[in-house]
């Protein structure tokens, strides 16, 4: 995913932070923090951000004029706390006394809650003498817009004031060009010996065997004095809120395999971390650090990945996007009536229109996905009341598909950006070089992407089904529209000599005959004929796509193939999950379990947290996958991938209207002998499903069933 602005990190910054993959992220609502492994903010992508503005840009702790030695650090499994364990380097003589290295244990423990950073610095003296400890913090607040942090240059910006201090606090103030006054406040529980607008110095007496705590808070509003009680009370609230988000819907548990269960737990925790409870319901933000905001496509796909376990996410996504459906034509925003939002941003640059992403609609697929998800969500829940409330939005979305989405009247959804400030490519592969002809030439627009036609097919089918239920006379016409799209795709995108689908059609209607993973998305929607789906599956499972760590976005040997690129040969877990689900839809099970096992192996090398993407190099014995240096971590649809792939592997489908759970030819990945789905809700009924490998088959046993629900197993 990209919104047109690349991440730019200097060599010095990269050496300093180790790349985005080493940044430690915490988030709550619209506030998030990214810091290095010491817990410091030192430049680059680091910072405490609130509503897309960086309100703390520098925060570096030194002990005796030096950075302490790091022992270990990391984020807790539930994503609430970051903890860094450090120790002192030799301290300078103080009053005739000095302390050798390694006698002080200095723990930094922090969390983000209610738009604030809470930190506790705990210092313990394990030496045999009392210690005078010189502790200092350097800090600053640049109030940079997130797009500035990502590398976008501005000709001018607003005015910052000289920071003010009052003994324990420093207050920063900035008036933007949008006339909005933005503030942040940094406060300490103890008054520093010296305090100015950029540095706080403490001289702490630490008797041998004793400990001392210093509490710190930072947020966009005036700080109360931090103390132990405020820290504990807010920590409890942060942990309880995260626990509630993690426990929504059904849960999955593997065998007595700590690593596999750790993957499930980490993925569920990442979804919970990125999910923000908005007035319209829970919404999974796309990812940190660059995409901690509602994205249309990402939110829809993440919710779809979780749909069988937790349909509340899909309801929250659908309701939020419906409330922001476009009502007017705006080339700058790439909007037309009925279109569904691609991205929304706060911050000064968006407010001023320096970038179009305050409320931006430049995603060609999001409107179709919105309708398709509504259909899938209704089958999962049977919630007619919500569908009736959304019905005007769904109809408006189909009118956009008919009137604007098909700009040249050929029956296919296409795109061409309306303004130079918008995205040049508007599908999920939205980098500038991701769509091309087989010889590497870029196509002229408007461009009709392969997978988008599949989403449109699913959308028209969903409208036909929902319309029939609601008594809408247009239902037969919508069903006919779906069939027309299917025939057009099979006729115009299929390449008989390649036994594969072209990635797109250009503005002249000529196929872009590059071989990409987009065909897996097409199978996910159920558009291809069984014979063509089998041919696509065979090729996706071949060496040109399979890296050993998942499916590449582009087949090896194609023009522009580069395993280190963003979209042209890398591996995206969500892309692999949709391809796997597409294979399963056409009856493939063994390969699904095999690829799920490969993604599990990749997750093991990434400390059980799948990044947004990683490089598509061939898997080598004894070596792990190669990281993409500026991949977002965590990323919602990467975290959701395991749940969609497990649904595909287990063959689970749920129909709330008939109160039926169908389990078709279930499989488990190699090494996983049993898996339990607990608290699966179907209408008013709740049950557990226990899957177990017996010989060469996987069987399912319903347990703890409460209410009316039917289990159907097929082979």
List keywords for this structure.
33 strands; globular; 715 residues; alpha+beta; Beta-galactosidase, Chain A, domain 5; Glycosyltransferase; nine-stranded antiparallel sheet
Distance between the termini: 38 Å
CATH superfamily of the domain at 11-243: Glycoside hydrolase, family 65, N-terminal domain
- The structural class is alpha+beta
Shape: globular
Q: List low-confidence stretches.
A: 4-21
In helices, the fraction of residues equals 25-40%
The CATH topology of the domain at 11-243 is: Beta-galactosidase, Chain A, domain 5
CATH architecture of the domain at 11-243: Distorted Sandwich
Describe the structure.
Strand 13 (about 170-175) and strand 14 (about 180-190) form a beta hairpin. The protein is an alpha+beta fold and about 725 residues long. Strands 6, 7, 8, 9, 11, 12, 13, 14 and 17 form a 9-stranded antiparallel sheet that branches. Strands 1-2-3-4 form a 4-stranded antiparallel sheet, with no helix packed on it. The chain has a 4-stranded antiparallel sheet with strand order 5-10-16-15, with no helix packed on it. It is globular, with a radius of gyration of 27 Å. Helix content is about 30%, strand content about 25%.
